[in-house]
Write the structure tokens for this entry.
Amino acid sequence: MEDVAKIADAVQILSQCQHHTLTAGRDELFPMLQGQPVEVLLAAVRNPAFDEHHLLPLLKQRGLPQAVFISIYANKHLIESNAVKFALLVNPETPPHIASTLLPQLNIFELLKICLIPGITPDQRLSAERVIIQRIPTQPLGNRMTLARRGTAAIVESLLREGVPTLVEACLDNPHLKEGSVHQFITGSTSSAETISMVARSGRWKGRPNIRLAILKNPRTPAIWYTMFLPGLPQSTIRELLSVPRLTFAQKELIRQALGRRITS
């Protein structure tokens, strides 16, 4: 009987707390959002005085029950602002179906900010990257330049593949750009004599052996880079370059000359 009475008291206290939270004024609500059971939080969300100023601090909490997110999302007036959408998307407990609906509603730089937040989950970053990459073709050059300078590895790789010289130059300085992406770009169909030369001049990339070889195996590579790079290669590597089928006659002649100088020296 004593246990039953304790349970009844707890239920009554919870019910009173819910009612108080549901009817509290705007300023009263703020302290009611910390460390409360799900029933109280749900009552707060239903309170007519509950607004974005309460919601943003609430969404910074970790361990919020799924029911709270669902209740927030059901109140469409609460998620009208981009600030709230952003806060929902960076909370790792936001249900995937809610996040997937909200992601396309953010602008491209809000999505980029999500990608760059320390501690963001891999799934959150991947989802935001996908939306950004889907939008890249429709973005003005200025936006693409910003993404090229600041984007994640996946974003900058997508921009590099476009082969636009101004974008390539910005991508090459991006600290997230990976060597494998540069190699794929050089060997791909969108690289040109101009953009290959950008890579060959880059202080960050020109000294990497795999990048140099990729440059020397491309039929679009200007002759100057054979003059610059061949003297630093082992004789065996120069011989291997002669067997690359897609090189032009002029390029192979430069390789033969470099090999001849090695043999006679």
Notes: DSSP finds 18 helices and no strands in the chain. The chain has a mean pLDDT of 90. The two ends are 104 Å apart (CA to CA).
